């Protein structure tokens, strides 16, 4: 059956999916904490990571700027660094390795310092 | 529903999407007019005199207190990008890109303001294994 307007978009086949790997020990701890405190939201974030880590830019999902715009993993430098706002305070940071179709999880935080509103 | 701006707008909560703000057409037109006029004035001043750009950098922390967390080169980059996007967005009549640029820089400042996260991001990463799907039943 062909998809109708309003239908959910079919998930990508497994071969199209991005690999998601831990790049730092802090990411392992942070991800576990987020699993315990915001499992449903984290599941949504996980789906973004495996299907479209560098697309769907919004105020809550985008590349960082300036000196934090890129990061390094193993022998690779200058990989784009993105952030997903998982909850009001929870954040996930990752590097996009398009060549290897891999997302490198750098850190995950349940809390974030509240910046002065401006 | 929640009243906003006195009694001239209502916020409508939606379960399946972002909340809506219900306003009068005249109010919405007024707000668009004010934003457009302010932006045009600002862009014209910058085009007239380079010193306005410098001045904008100096007053930036007053408007956005969080820029204090950004390193100097990043503050400069933010000003340049903000000016460009203000001009471009005004020509399209769409303020969304401006809000977006501000959000991206604010989130970047948020990382600079968090020494623990900043230290982690500055490190070189290594392959520490696969991230499994989170169990969505826990929350």
UniProtKB/TrEMBL annotation, chain A:
Name by which UniProt lists this protein: Uncharacterized protein
Organism: Prauserella marina
Phylogenetic lineage: Bacteria, Bacillati, Actinomycetota, Actinomycetes, Pseudonocardiales
